[in-house]
Design brief:
The complex is a heterodimer of chains A (114) and B (106). Chain A has 114 residues and is mainly beta. Chain A is built from no helices and eleven strands. Classes of the chains: A mainly beta (114), B mainly beta (106). The interface between A and B is medium-sized, with 20 and 23 residues.
Amino acid sequence: DTAVSQTPKYLVTQMGNDKSIKCEQNLGHDTMYWYKQDSKKFLKIMFSYNNKELIINETVPNRFSPKSPDKAHLNLHINSLELGDSAVYFCASSQEGQNNSPLHFGNGTRLTVT
Amino acid sequence: GQNIDQPTEMTATEGAIVQINCTYQTSGFNGLFWYQQHAGEAPTFLSYNVLDGLEEKGRFSSFLSRSKGYSYLLLKELQMKDSASYLCAVPNKFYFGSGTKLNVKP
C-alpha cells in the first residue's frame, strides 16, 4: 500500500529516557514533516525536511533531533524525555512546489512519559 | 507569521447542514486546506482552495474569500460519521488552526 507509516504506534517511557520514532513514506514525495498534537488537539508543526535538508524548525527544544537518511525517511529522536513531551506525534509528507499537494499523514505515535 | 481562528466546537443534527468557519491572517498565501480528523486517527485531506469562490465535492463544499481572509467548510446531509474535528491550514499547509470539533446528533 502507498502510505506514510510510522512506528511505534504507542510508546510509554519514563522521564529522562531517550526514544526514537521512525517514519517512512513511499509516495515519492520530497518533503516530510513532524507534527505534535497535544491534549487540546492543537496540531503544531515541529520540523520540515525537503530532500533531506531541514527547512523548518519551529522553536523546538534541542532535545528533539530529526534525522533524514534519505527523502523517504524522517526519524525523530528525543533525548531526556519530559512529562510535557506526552502527545501524539504525526509524521507527514507532501510534494514541494505543488501548492495544491496536501499533506499525507502517518497514523501517529502516542507518546506517554511517566 | 500566521494567525488562524476556528470555533472550538459545534453541534448539529443528522441530516442538517453545518458551516464551519476559518479566519486567517498570513504574511503569504498559497491556498487553504481543510482536513478532517476522527478521534484517535490521523488528519485526512478534504479540500483545497486558492481562488475565491466555492469548491464543491459531494456533500462537502469549501469557500474562500482572500480579501476577507475567510474560508468556510459546508457539510450537507450530515451523517453520524461526520462527527470529527475539522482543521483549516494555511498558507503552505504547515500551520493549522486549532480545529473545530463537530458533534452530530441523531
